[in-house]
Amino acid sequence: MYHGEWTRDKKELLKYDLVLTSYSILGTEFEQDSPVNQIEWFRVILDEAHVIKNSTARQTKAVIALNAERRWVVTGTLIQNSSIDLYPLMAFLRFQPFSIKSYWQSLIQHPLENGNKTGLSLLQNLLGAISLRRIKDTDIGTKSMIKLPPKTVLECYIDLSAEEREIYDQMELEGKNKMQELGDRDSILRNYSTVLYFILRLCQLCDDVTLCPLDVKSWLPSNSLEDVSTNPELLKKLASLVDDGDDFDCPICLSPPTKTVITSCTHIYCHTCIMKILKSSSSRCPICRRSLSKEDLFLAPEVNHSDEDGSGNTRSDRSLSSKVQALLKLPKTSQNEDPSSKSVVFSQFKQMLILLEAPLKNAGFNILRLDGSMTMKKRLQVIKQFAHGGPDTPTVLLASLKASGAGVNLMAASTVYLFDPWWNPGVEEQAMDRVHWIGQKKEVKVIRLIVKGSIEERILSLQEKKQQLISSAFGKKKKGGKDDKEMRLEELRVMRGLDKGRPVAGCRPSEACHI
């Protein structure tokens, strides 16, 4: 296990048949005197290989530079955003000429951008030649390596209350005006993080108004990132932003940060971990490689939630949001049909999971929570407890989409609730697969909770487009391509409501519930 207090001795690593490490560690040690970089490996296998989709990222460069006789990549989400995601995988596999960026662009990327069928045909032939695709068999007559019970995905549409709708519409209008102020294409892309932050806040409004401030000026992250090294108040705001919903681990020790430190380049580490880096010869940020000194480090203020211990009293003095009310009705129906059934509720916001605890307990559910603030030991305990059967066992697991979306076994459940949609369909698919995977005996039902007339419907539209791209790459549908920047710009315009987008597919009345 090459992480934590790992060895610096090449001979020590050579004693083992198998070495397990992480992408972030490889990135941290890239271009350093690391034993991992000194060994000629027989085989290097990348699990969740889509992590290296950014060819300019330090960890991607580190992985590609590893010395190995044989190279494999394993992923359930080969393409997440556009066909350019595939290039770093070709570079790692050293599959010439596609591992050479100029060849990739001329043979595949540029033809796809121009809608030339030869680019798509070549991409399909390439993937067919070098990949093994394992699909799950839930339909009679489907040829598959994996036999599983059926999985049904439904959309549950929710109407906001009059008060919620007024707040949402006002915030969305101000967000649209802000994006239009940014002007042309290049201006929008330069302010990409600002626009994404507006989108994040609108998604939070769909979940529960209390998740975000109602002052649009406070939605702008650009100031908090720009002057964080000189303004303690903005630093505090950045810390609360991170605590607001993003589960994260220190990229050095791979555990939730203790005594959290924020750098002037806005990266987050454990105090102990980053101090070790400063004492080394590099003295650079492991993520962006910016030179760091003690003056660039700021201790994050502790932000404690009133219900962090799960006591469940945050809702006693106010009404429930429309989406929470909708969720409370659904598990009851499942339990009436099957008293032994268990459910998993996924959300991208940790604070939303905390807010859900009290109403679910008051409704009579025995619940557990699983999020990125927990140590790995605690996470394993929660998963084991959830899997246990019998009376008085937990029936609902509140799970972080990031912390629980991959690598955990949640097959004790048979129902999945996606409380808020994520714009990358692959992330949602991985979350569903924690329940619908080898060993599952029951039919699995997945219910997406979608607010009508909101950014959530536009996210579903974008998911459909990305699914079409993935399908076309494997030869199922024909579709032209666009360059990465144009796709990003289109995504921003659709999600900000400047472009209505396409109707959401697969939402026939018989396959959706309306609340």
Chain-wise SSE layout:
Elements: H1 10-13, H2 23-28, H3 35-38, E1 41-47, H4 58-64, E2 68-74, H5 87-93, H6 101-113, H7 117-130, E3 136-137, E4 146-147, E5 151-158, H8 162-182, H9 185-190, H10 192-207, H11 222-226, H12 232-243, E6 260-263, E7 268-270, H13 271-279, E8 297-299, H14 322-337, E9 343-347, H15 350-362, E10 367-370, H16 376-387, E11 396-400, H17 401-404, E12 415-418, H18 425-433, E13 444-451, H19 455-473, H20 484-495, E14 512-514
Parallel strand pairs: 1-2, 3-4, 5-13, 5-14, 9-11, 9-12, 10-11, 12-13
Antiparallel strand pairs: 6-7, 6-8
Helix pairs in contact: 6-7, 8-10
Could you give a short account of the major beta sheet?
7 strands, parallel
**DSSP strand (E) fraction?**
5-15%
CATH architecture of the largest domain: 3-Layer(aba) Sandwich
| Helix content estimate | 40-55%
Mean pLDDT: 77
The domain tally reads 3
Which sequence of strands runs across the widest sheet?
Answer: 10-11-9-12-13-5-14
Query: Stretches where pLDDT falls below 50 for ≥5 residues?
Result: 138-142, 221-231, 243-247, 303-317, 477-484, 500-512
Shape: globular
Radius of gyration: 23 Å
Q: In the CATH scheme, what's the topology name of the largest domain?
A: Rossmann fold
Task: Label the structural class.
Answer: alpha/beta
Alpha plus pi helix count = 20
Counting DSSP E segments of at least 2 residues, the number of strands comes to 14
How far apart are the termini? 49 Å
CATH superfamily of the largest domain: P-loop containing nucleotide triphosphate hydrolases
CATH class of the largest domain: Alpha Beta
GO molecular function: ATP binding; ATP-dependent activity, acting on DNA; helicase activity; hydrolase activity; zinc ion binding
Keywords: ATP-binding, Helicase, Hydrolase, Metal-binding, Nucleotide-binding, Zinc, Zinc-finger
Family: Belongs to the SNF2/RAD54 helicase family. RAD16 subfamily.
GO biological process, one term: DNA repair
